[in-house]
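User: Some background: our group keeps a shared notebook of sequences we're curious about, and every so often someone picks one and asks for a predicted structure to add to the entry. Today it's my turn. The entry only has the sequence so far, pasted here. Could you supply the structure so I can complete it?
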Amino acid sequence: MADETEVKTEEMTEEEELANLSEQHRIRIEKLNKLKADGKDPYITTKFPVDTLAKTIRDNYDSMENQTVAIAGRMMTRRIMGKASFADVRDGSDRMQIYVRIDEVGKDVFDEFKTWDLGDIVGVTGYVFKTKTGEISVHAKSITLLSKSLLPLPEKWHGLKDKEERYRKRYLDLIANPEIKDTFVTRSRILREIRSYLDGIGYIEVDTPILLPLEIGAAARPFKTHHNALDIDMYLRIETELYLKRLIVGGFDKVYEVGRIFRNEGMDATHNPEFTSIEMYQAYTDYFGMMDIIEDLYRTVTLKICGTDTVPYQGKQIAVGKPWERLTMIEAVKKYAGVDFADWTDDEAARKAAGEKHVELESKTATKGEVLIAFFETFVEENLIQPTIIYDYPVENSPLAKRKPEDPMFTERFEYFINGTEFGNAFSELNDPIDQRGRFEKQVAAKRAQGGNDAQVDDDFITALEYGLPPTGGLGFGVDRLVMLLTDSASIRDVLLFPTMRPEKK
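Assistant: Of course. Here's the predicted structure to add to the notebook entry:
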């Protein structure tokens, strides 16, 4: 029949593929209508008494031989041979071959079974055995159609290979390429190990608001919505920082949040408009304390997940377990660009040095700190392959970090880099409310000058600081990039079940 024909999609035009899909869809709907007319609507079935997974049978065959089991899953292949038939059924753990005989299930059921389609969901009760070729199988005593698949699966030899289609229809990707499920199982394990680590050192997991009543003056652009009942505009959060620090003010000494973050910005291999971050804050420590935590957390989680603390990533071996190199931004620029911040007597001298090295600056009035940042981005980042901590950032791009007492031009901030990409960001948190208000106001003014008229100072956060924020270390990192590293995934879309996509054209 048409829906059992192997379709060589690579040899068909798009119009032919659509026509073929439409024909198979029509035939399957006709089959469904006949089932309903015969009082056998598969969608009426509410449950099936599954008691065993395919992987369990495979892993424990010696103790399960001849044992009666009930399995269920999607029928992926079928071979009809007269009065007997073999089929592969895939559940959430693995695939299992089933053996169906007319004299075991009855002629009526066997005849119905032959009309079912690949992709249909079936339930099977039978006993475990091995075929003459040694294949672990279930000999069916009964078989039931649990759900009808109205669309054919991707043709088995060609499969679902188009990346855009795989991301857009992840459910189909998981059916056609079941091995990718491992990435998302690993993601779940990574989150569990991170939580276990932080819980184990005394942190408390909390939840903070996603919808905010104002757009704070941070650099990231938020998504905007409207709350009908309150008749106010609201903004999806771009970070969890300010609410978590409010909790430190309130007496929580160690808090963290696994938070969904939303930024209305560009997309590339390491950026998606919505992503998962973990932010943690600890009272009575500083950014050096957070350096020690993040190194140990990465080392611990990597060992738990991968069984080793050196992992392959895009052709490189990343030594997560070795002590991470720690450089100030000044030291890093001197090492990789060959220029010394100490030689710049003023802003003009810094801009001149940038011109000599062909470093692009965003402003003709760039300060020494802004020039240093430009040098870092131009010469340093791409060289930071092994885990490296860069610390002591200019105050110009660190509005929430505490100034260094011995040099107020710089802040107690660090970022850590792996494979030339920033993986996390940390501060000795600014707890001077007067200084914080001044930095917020400057940031808001700059954003409004660029057309961001909704940007505001978070006055309530300033009020919280006025009640007293203890010395605090804070750190945030993207979960998605860590998952990319530990699963050797090239794109963030490979580690998000449903990445943001442009709507499909109808």
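Suggested note for the entry: Confidence is low (pLDDT under 50) at residues 1-10. The chain is about 35% helix and 25% strand.
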